[in-house]
Amino acid sequence: MSVAAQFEIEYLHYMGADGQLVRDDLPADAANPQQLLALFKRMVFVRTFDSKSVALQRTGKLGTYAACIGHEATHVGIGASMRSGDVLAPSYREYGTMFERGVRPRDVLLYWGGDERGSDYPRNADAAIDFPICVPISTQCLHAAGSALSFKLQGKPQVAVACCGDGGSSKTDFYAALNAAGAYKLPLILCVINNGWAISVPRSAQTGAQTLAQKGLAGGLHCLQVDGNDLIAVLEAMRQARARALAGDGGTVIEFLTYRLSDHTTADDARRYRGQEEVKQGWAREPLLRLRRYLTAQGLWDDAQEAAWKAECGARVDQEIDAYLNTPVQPVEAMFDYLYGDPPAELLAQRAEVMAMEARHG
Fold it and tell me: What residues act catalytically?
């Protein structure tokens, strides 16, 4: 029998759930425990922000919010691996990645509070050229592919990174992006964050593929599956993918295995479709627990440091919440002012009508 093609998908994993290393050939990131400590502290900050954001929604001070608890190693690791000039096209949950790029927590809160100014990132941040949060599933993958094509045509040493969920890897935009990336050898990294659930649809009902990473083979991309709760593995996978892209060897699809410890959003109740035992197992594998164990064993972390840092994170997040809550509301005419460079007469008439109503009724 002749064989047309054969393939294997590499699985990258350095640290077990118990915080013990499972490999001796550690990358440079693991050889620098101080870097891991700094990133761990940022992961704790993300979790603090996340829990306080959920509380804001529950008290009516924030709109529907998509929590990220359980994704911290993947999100922070992706962001920490990017460089100035790279472009991020996120979905709607990668706050840790966005914070690494210079997005402020108040910006995320403004977005979920219904204020479009939350997507107007600081001009001096790497995120100033990033795409905004994208709720439509996987459409951002094509935006990232377009950015990657621009980088290649201009000969710029930059990469585009798109994030989507496991369900997003079954969307046509995802396939179109990976096909373009393969055909033109684009410097594109497609990060599939597999947390087990696409809202209420389990991974097993989404696709017949053995891995989500292998979907990249159809486009001729390099493919890799990673323990997304292992910060070392996330950093190394991103380093390899970025180096490959800058060398002209094309894009990569990385499947990050993690778990959504929360509901899909604050409008969801995951108890209706998944069991307690599954969630319990997810908590046993979560990223902060394992990295905390590792750093404690290295003599770099203890309970006193943990308490002090959590208190500092809480205070910093509270400052961001205050900034969000005290942001002046946009004037009513703002909904008309940023649609056209040369507004049509109909829109100008509507603007005048609304402003007249505002003047009468306040």
Answer: 260, 264, 273
